[in-house]
Amino acid sequence: MFRGGPSRSDFAGKGRLAGRLCGGRPGPSGRRPNWAAGCKAEFWYWGFAAGMVVFALTLNFKLFFAITAASILLVLAIVLDSQKRQTP
After folding, report:
1. For residue 60, which of 21, 43, 67, 69 sits 20 to 30 Å off, Cα-Cα?
2. CB atoms < 10 A from the CB of 75, how many?
């Protein structure tokens, strides 16, 4: 019986259009999200975007490449450091 809108049971089996920032349930793997590791993994993209913005504002290729190279080197340093910490 339809009385003005869908009920909660109609929404229970369907996914969301956008995810939550703070998940209420663990994902399919059963583990909670690791936000720090996710932000470290995305750092290269943010560094590249910052380099593009700086280039658009200044039209300076050297500055663009310096920022992009710094973001790549920082990501490599983070990866190497995390691998070093994981080995016993």
Report:
1. 43
2. 17
